[in-house]
Write a structure and sequence with these properties.
This protein has 2 helices and 4 strands. The chain is of the alpha+beta class.
């Protein structure tokens, strides 16, 4: 489990020093499903998400531009 926290610059928010970037989870055209990584599927993404939660990760980098919001879904 990750217990360490850092203060996010310019705020009072406390975040973990390690997070999960979800760009490939929503980016169909370049890196994601049906693109560069043919092994990336909704099932493998769900497994990665669940493993992250089990490890105590609470910081996920998402953006509405990642696959038109798909990484956030």
């Amino acid at each position: 489990m990750i217990d360490e926290r850092n203060t996010l610059a310019g705020s009072d928010a406390q975040i973990q020093p390690l997070g999960v970037g979800t760009w490939a989870w929503g980016d169909h055209d370049t890196w994601g499903m049906g693109g560069y990584d043919s092994g990336l599927t909704e099932r493998t993404i769900a497994e990665a998400f669940e493993a992250s939660l089990e490890a105590g990760v609470t910081f996920f980098d998402t953006a509405e531009v990642y696959g038109g919001g798909e990484s956030e879904r």
